[in-house]
Amino acid sequence: MLYDLNSFLRQASPVLQQRLQWLIQTANTHNCACYLVGGCVRDWLLERPVGDIDVVVEGDAIALAKVWAAVWPDQLHTHPPFGTATLSWQDSSLDLISARSEYYPQPAALPVVSFANLAADLARRDFTINCLALRLINQPTELIDPQHGYADLQHGLIRVLHDLSFINDPTRILRAIRFAARLNFELEPQTAILLQHALPWLDQTTPARLWNELGLLLTEPSALVALSLADSWGVLNQLFGSGGWSASLNQQAQTLLANQSDQQLAIVWLLLMSQLAPSAAQTQTQRFSLPKPIRLMVEQWPQLVAFEATLSQTTLSAGQLDRLLSPFEPLLLEVWASNQATSIQHQIKYYLQYLRPIASILTGRDLQAQGIPAGPNYKTLLAEARERQLDQFEQANPNLC
Ligand code: ATP
Ligand code: MG
């Protein structure tokens, strides 16, 4: 089928349109074949918003990128071993990629690359729906579709290109989940079987490479669907040794995310880790180098669990509640509470909403002014004073708790 590139250009921002027009002219003038490939073609055909743009160049992409950077005031980053260059401007970017082929000397290891033509470049890709290409040319252009990805797009199928695909690169397992969840697609039956056979190879893949994909999966808008798929396909069990993503966990996540969508990674990670033994949760959190605030919350989780019995008593005063809960991150309290008895949820809400925001009246400076020598007893004195203050607050506001 022939496509008019102008309709691709029309959906792009004016800045990107200018650059792509220039690229079409420059490629034509220098007789250098350039192609839109991968996600941008897939998403455009699906009439979804087009994200980052990848352009494969049959030739030296870095040389072309340098010409680009001399014309446009964009930032240029090159990656010579792979012959790729990224051009960035304002809030957008475009990758220029020298067409390459890849060969996997060992399963789950990084590939050896060599420069090649578009056909070889498309043959190294993950799924049929991601090996579609459109030549950037000044006239209607044919959809290049060697793997029948267009048919799979229409049928909503994720299909690998060959039987060793997941074993060569097990991160494709996570990519398959991500695309299935995002696009509401299914695995083509043979691909589903191959994915199951390749699961053990996830253990041979470095945490950094796994996280490149896992991190994306957990931060996409469709992360909860992805987690349910990952659970039912045995991927969570393979990655974390146990645990999972039950319907009730999913419900908890939905409720928490409704109010705090900006904390998605922390929320889903804490819920995932809540299914593991504390030491396993900490090991996994370190293995994937989660950001420090999330690491701290995972470390605090067992201490909070240990307070469950104490919190079940509704006899705690406001001061006692504050003293017990103040060491914990508010988000951790909310995530943990989301699966607790109503009485505990109620106390945590009361603490977070009313007690935690109250500033202590007595400060270290006041103690100094009273001539009390500075020392470890300051901490005790200030804590006792705060406890009294909050108890008084509770007596004055009995209807809040
Ligand atoms: P997204 O919309 O999430 O960016 P995308 O398809 O553009 O989706 P990218 O991760 O940006 O995905 O990768 C760009 C292209 O590179 C993909 O479309 C795919 O063809 C190829 N690709 C990326 N990762 C792999 C991989 N692990 N194995 C094979 N091909 C890959
Ligand atoms: Mg992309």
Automatic annotation (TrEMBL):
It comes from the Bacteria. Its cofactor is Mg(2+). Residues 184-240 form the tRNA nucleotidyltransferase/poly(A) polymerase RNA and SrmB- binding domain. It holds the Pfam family PolyA_pol. The keyword Cell membrane does not apply. The keyword RNA-binding applies. Keywords: Magnesium, Metal-binding, Nucleotide-binding, Nucleotidyltransferase, RNA-binding, Transferase, tRNA processing, tRNA-binding. Residues 34-159 form the Poly A polymerase head domain. Belongs to the tRNA nucleotidyltransferase/poly(A) polymerase family. This is A-adding tRNA nucleotidyltransferase.
